[in-house]
Write a structure and sequence with these properties.
Layout: H1 2-10, H2 12-35, H3 40-45, H4 50-61, E1 68-75, E2 78-86, H5 92-106, E3 113-117
């Protein structure tokens, strides 16, 4: 016990310096946590736009489509791409129907619509 106390007395400045560094690092860690941008999972779980919700409702009610997820990309108020993931995307006829419905509903070119099969 006495050896420990003697060691602490001899190295008091080093112990204080290390303790201060650890405290600063902990403070910086917590400050940085509040400033981080949202992760992909957080962004994904944010609310869908009204248009995305409406489109999901239309597609889900179409024959053969099944469960659906929709993402609409926009730039300067113009739709630049639509991604659709649904259960019925394996069927060529269903994919064609989805393509026509989305193109008509959003008044966009079919070339910017991508349709993928949903993992069940």
């Amino acid at each position: 016990m006495q050896k420990t106390l003697d060691w602490v007395k001899e190295n008091k400045k080093i112990i204080i310096a290390v303790t201060i560094i650890v405290i600063i690092l902990v403070i910086l860690y917590f400050i940085n946590q509040g400033n981080q941008s949202p992760t992909a999972a957080t962004v994904y779980t944010q609310e869908k736009s009204n248009t995305e919700q409406k489109l999901m409702g239309i597609l889900t009610n179409m024959d053969g489509v099944g469960a659906t997820d929709v993402m609409i990309n926009e730039s300067d108020g113009e739709i630049t791409g639509v991604v659709i993931v649904c259960q019925g995307a394996d069927s060529i006829m269903t994919r064609s129907n989805i393509l026509n419905a989305v193109s008509t509903a959003l008044n966009i070119d079919k070339k910017i619509i991508a349709i993928y099969s949903m993992e069940i």
